[in-house]
Amino acid sequence: MFKTYEEALSWIHSRKIFGMKPGLKRMEWMLERLNFPQKRIKAIHVAGTNGKGSTVTFLRSMLEANGKIVGTFTSPYIETFNERISVNGEPISNEEILRLANIVFPLACELEETELDGPTEFEVITTMMFIYFGEGHADVVVIEVGLGGLLDSTNVITPIVSVITTIGLDHMQVLGETIAEIALQKSGIIKPNVPVVVGKVVDEALKIIQLVAENNNSIVKLFGENYSSSKCQTLPSWGEQFTFEDETMYLNQIQIKMLGQHQIENAMVAIETLQTYSIETGLELNHEAIRRGLKTAFWPGRMEKISDNPMIVLDGAHNEPAIRRLIETINADFKQQEIYLIFAVLHDKAVGRMIDLLTELPNIHITLTSFSNPRAAKIKELQDYTNSNVKIKEYWQEALADVINEMDGNGLVLITGSLYFISEVREYLLKLDNE
Q: What number is the average pLDDT over the span 417-425?
């Protein structure tokens, strides 16, 4: 058993990333011995290639504004490990992490001796989350899928509403090589008779989702069909404004602080999910509270302006679909500016394709770098991608200093790539600012 938070965290991180045998059997084994805490949770289950974190944030903020105590389960973390399990946006305490780890530890040791093998890091964290929220610390829990859906550790719940934000090519070595294969994995969260809200997805993915929903007798709420937006515009104060409409609700000139058309889409998915949740549970919604919740929603590392002079923006565009949305935002809001982009990513991503897309932007200066994560693409792996517009710096701190010295007053420093990278940079810059 662990005596300190540090000991508990060290053990959690020492667990393997993937189990020897994929599937939910280890989760089911542990949860059965814990008397099924997941069955005592009112949950909203959120899957998707991108947009999960922002959608969870919009949902949490709106539910809070409507008087609910809201638990969230998200990954990866940006500031502190504890934020993965949060209540009303506040990470649970070190003492709670220690207590929960000590509950799971003996189960993990016992499970290790079975043919199922021991639990993975994510299975341990997910079990801790189910124990905590099963104790009644929140009225509703918004749970973000870790990877895929069908075989994800969170997929032991029967939620009030299921959500699929987007479908794109990512984690292909695990989820499949095609959009259809990935859509089938994401659709695995759809449960019998549980409604599912679907974001903006391509037809190939939509056909799979609709087929799985039909087989489960699940109502599907479709982006652009059951709910839609209009009057979209970027705000000069950093953010977006739009009008939302579905079969029963009309909200004019909603404002959000997150920048980009994709954030309008994430907010729309969240509103429709909240509306569906309210119908299923009898929750009375206050339209002004919805507006207030959306306007105050904040998710770090998503087109987050961290400094005005020089202008420094952080964005966790960690895969090819996210890079495409980042490029859309740059073309819409920053096309008159010189962009000094610092990019670091995990080695198992489509690094070459992501860099190719970024180099197509006008007025772009790209510096490739690395960061302190064992899965990060290393400098020697990035050498092949250099050209007249792409430089390499071994240390991102050096890259940032060089860029700030090089740029003029109208330039924008955009730091992007892995969310782990963004977390490292963000901690450094905020500490520098405080000092």
A: 95
